[in-house]
């Protein structure tokens, strides 16, 4: 088994944004909401945290059987818009996985994983009619869900959901039964986070997670329902609402998800978010593993590009996993010129500080002052 597989589990997650229902308050800065799920307090990793739907990739997501459902024309990688020459390729997407078979490219399998997990955890089915795939293009704007009349009756769909939870291969059977395919084209590569060394869950659980963006238009956020198991609550919130709930200690959001919500804060319109996400995706992304720096009064998660980020970060934790300093956070902030870090003064007092140019045409997070909904970049705060 390669070191890649030994040290972390490969996973996919989706920032699912939905708008178009006119349900948001007219005073809201945002015309869309994002789906957050609360993990069970019994979870071995991030118990009770709010996260985006997602989970570990399964061999069924790589199954050659998908080839019979997915459109026959052309070699599979061409199913998805090709990346630009020189795009960032996170190792997750480039890795060979002979143990899982090589029928499907990782970009396809990780999307299937994210879509399957969204059904398992929230009951939301991101499918498209098999016959409509050829005309599916993200240039048309945010995606549509299947019409309700194309879905089985509620109790039957709930039974399918339980089957998929028990056996991920049942997801392909469901798609075949509905003559539909996972809407791979609605998911846009967004980022890739590796759980930091020193933050593994019980049993050393660390994850290499592909983050996708999916924007749904038309008809408002779909009903999401938790599974009373792995997930104990589902909620649709605007980026500001989610950040406010975090700051007021009503919910706890893990740092990568917090960072991503602060990036979404740049976009008040679902159409702008969709356009940005779908056009940017051809640039790819790089893998980020935060490196923890423990200060005397809190800790900082350093990210690539920060001047304190190690040249040769310890990916496996076998060398010097956690950096320490006797200094206070304030001093570590004053001294620094190049910032790319998540600063945690305590569990709910977390700020993203970044003043470097983002790579791969991405956008930097905004620092949100949740009291007034104001934002500023870190330069202007220092
Ligand atoms: C990987 C997951 C999708 C969970 O998988 P599961 O099979 O259990 O459903 C999810 O956890 C996820 O999206 N993770 C991606 C990013 C990540 O690893 N986040 C956690 C980082 S740990 C951390 O930063 C702790 C911070 C602290 O303690 O201060
Ligand atoms: N009722 C429950 N309460 C807590 N965790 C649960 C659960 N049912 C399933 N899980 C956990 O959820 C994880 C599956 O997540 P996913 O399908 O999103 O990858 C598994 O964790 P582990 O993989 O850590 O064992 C599994 O143990
Ligand atoms: Mg999960």
TrEMBL record:
<keyword id="KW-0464">Manganese</keyword>
<comment type="similarity">
    <text>Belongs to the Nudix hydrolase family.</text>
</comment>
<keyword id="KW-0378">Hydrolase</keyword>
<keyword id="KW-0460">Magnesium</keyword>
<dbReference type="GO" id="GO:0005739">
    <property type="term" value="C:mitochondrion"/>
</dbReference>
<dbReference type="InterPro" id="IPR000086">
    <property type="entry name" value="NUDIX_hydrolase_dom"/>
</dbReference>
<feature type="domain" description="Nudix hydrolase">
    <location>
        <begin position="7"/>
        <end position="259"/>
    </location>
</feature>
<dbReference type="InterPro" id="IPR039121">
    <property type="entry name" value="NUDT19"/>
</dbReference>
<protein>
    <recommendedName>
        <fullName>Acyl-coenzyme A diphosphatase NUDT19</fullName>
        <ecNumber>3.6.1.77</ecNumber>
    </recommendedName>
</protein>
<comment type="function">
    <text>Fatty acyl-coenzyme A (CoA) diphosphatase that hydrolyzes fatty acyl-CoA to yield acyl-4'-phosphopantetheine and adenosine 3',5'-bisphosphate. Mediates the hydrolysis of a wide range of CoA esters, including choloyl-CoA and branched-chain fatty-acyl-CoA esters and at low substrate concentrations medium and long-chain fatty-acyl-CoA esters are the primary substrates. Highest activity seen with medium-chain acyl-CoA esters and higher rates of activity seen with the unsaturated acyl-CoA esters compared with the saturated esters. Exhibits decapping activity towards dpCoA-capped RNAs in vitro.</text>
</comment>
<dbReference type="InterPro" id="IPR015797">
    <property type="entry name" value="NUDIX_hydrolase-like_dom_sf"/>
</dbReference>
<keyword id="KW-0479">Metal-binding</keyword>
<dbReference type="GO" id="GO:0010945">
    <property type="term" value="F:coenzyme A diphosphatase activity"/>
</dbReference>
<dbReference type="GO" id="GO:0046872">
    <property type="term" value="F:metal ion binding"/>
</dbReference>
């Amino acid at each position: 088994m390669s070191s890649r597989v030994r040290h972390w589990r490969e996973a996919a997650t989706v920032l699912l944004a939905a708008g178009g229902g006119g349900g948001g308050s007219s005073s809201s800065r945002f015309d869309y909401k994002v789906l957050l799920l609360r993990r069970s307090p019994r979870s071995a990793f991030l118990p009770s945290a709010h996260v985006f739907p997602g989970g570990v990739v399964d061999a069924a997501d790589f199954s050659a059987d998908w080839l019979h459902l997915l459109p026959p024309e052309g070699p599979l990688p061409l199913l998805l818009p090709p990346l630009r020459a020189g795009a960032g390729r996170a190792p997750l997407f480039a890795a060979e996985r002979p143990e899982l078979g090589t029928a499907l490219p990782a970009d396809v399998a990780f999307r299937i994983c994210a879509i399957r997990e969204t059904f398992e955890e929230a009951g939301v089915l991101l499918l498209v009619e098999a016959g409509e795939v050829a005309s599916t293009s993200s240039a048309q704007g945010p995606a549509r869900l299947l019409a309700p009349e194309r879905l089985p009756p509620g109790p039957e769909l709930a039974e399918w959901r339980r089957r998929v939870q028990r056996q991920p291969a049942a997801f392909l059977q469901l798609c075949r039964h509905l003559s539909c395919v996972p809407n791979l084209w609605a998911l846009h590569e967004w980022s890739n986070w590796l759980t930091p060394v020193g933050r593994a869950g019980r049993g050393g659980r660390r994850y290499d997670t592909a983050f996708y963006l999916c924007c749904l238009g038309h008809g408002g956020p779909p009903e999401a329902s938790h599974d009373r198991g792995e997930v104990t609550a589902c909620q649709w919130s605007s980026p500001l609402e989610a950040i406010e709930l975090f700051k007021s200690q009503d919910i706890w959001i893990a740092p990568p998800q917090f960072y991503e919500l602060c990036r979404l804060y740049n976009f008040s319109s679902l159409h702008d978010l969709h356009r940005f996400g779908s056009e940017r995706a051809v640039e790819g992304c790089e893998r980020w593993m935060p490196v923890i720096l423990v200060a005397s009064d809190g800790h900082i998660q350093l990210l690539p590009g920060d001047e304190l980020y190690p040249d040769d970060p310890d990916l496996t934790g076998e060398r010097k996993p956690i950096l320490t300093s006797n200094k206070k956070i304030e001093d570590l902030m004053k001294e620094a010129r190049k910032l790319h870090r998540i600063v945690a003064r305590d569990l709910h007092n977390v700020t993203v500080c970044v003043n470097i140019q983002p790579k791969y045409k991405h956008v930097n997070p905004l620092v949100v002052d949740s009291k007034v909904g104001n934002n500023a970049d870190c330069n202007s705060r220092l």
